[in-house]
Amino acid sequence: MVLRHGDGSAGDANYGAIGADYARFRRPDPRIAALIGAALGDARSILNVWARAGSYEPTDRIVTAVEPSASMRAQRPAHLPAAIDAVAEQLPFEDSRFDAGMASFTVHQWRDLEAGLREMRRVTRGPVVILTCDPGELGRFWLDLYAPEAIAIEAGRYPSIERMTKVLGPRIEVSSVPIPLDCIDGFNEAYYGRPERLLDPAARLACSAWSFVDAAAVSRFERHLKQDLDSGAWDRRLGYLRARPEFEGSLRLVVAQR
């Protein structure tokens, strides 16, 4: 049995409480979307697992979206198909139903990673494409200097690539995804050169890790970052990031062939 929060969220984060502005901040970046599209190859029928508000769903293919959170399903734009209320661990489809499967920024929230991956593999006859983060590389982001609690929480939630490989099999390719300076998908590392954005509580809550950070640590983070931005200390130490066109952080694209 998969336990759910009040709005149907199934996982560690309650999107009924934190997801009100998710679609406003978590929009698909076209450069990242292009990499996902290329990884899906010529697949026509796509399963998007834990689809959230629909980020990175291709619009030129037949997509079936699965999303357990009612608040997330309600934020899907009108041009995307309605999402099915289901969870990764119990996909309501027959074997080999889809040409390909995808999951973006979600495997770290599943209650049973292995069960969810096995289900994706079961219902997919082609590639399984997962956009995720390498927990061992999260410390490369400057946020570790200001809110190590947030980085530690993320590192504890994201599964290792090796763990996913054990389920998805040996035919797996992992590539680093460059994060553009003007990335419009508001995950934490997207603000590597725009630190001011993380002073916005709504922007932070679009990244579920912040919902687990102690209030005192959040206040300390806000105070410390604001002081360093006002004094110029952040720019003296890290200002070069404001002009760096891309950041090679923890973002990874995992493509598993059958």
Automatic annotation (TrEMBL):
What is the recorded name of this protein?
Answer: Methyltransferase type 11 domain-containing protein
Q: Which GO terms describe its molecular function?
A: S-adenosylmethionine-dependent methyltransferase activity
Concerning Pfam families, the annotation shows: Methyltransf_11
Which InterPro entries does this one have?
Methyltransf_11, SAM-dependent_MTases_sf
Task: Please list the residue ranges annotated as the Methyltransferase type domain.
Answer: 61-125
Q: Classify the source by domain of life.
A: Bacteria
- Gene3D superfamilies in the record, alphabetically? Vaccinia Virus protein VP39 (3.40.50.150)
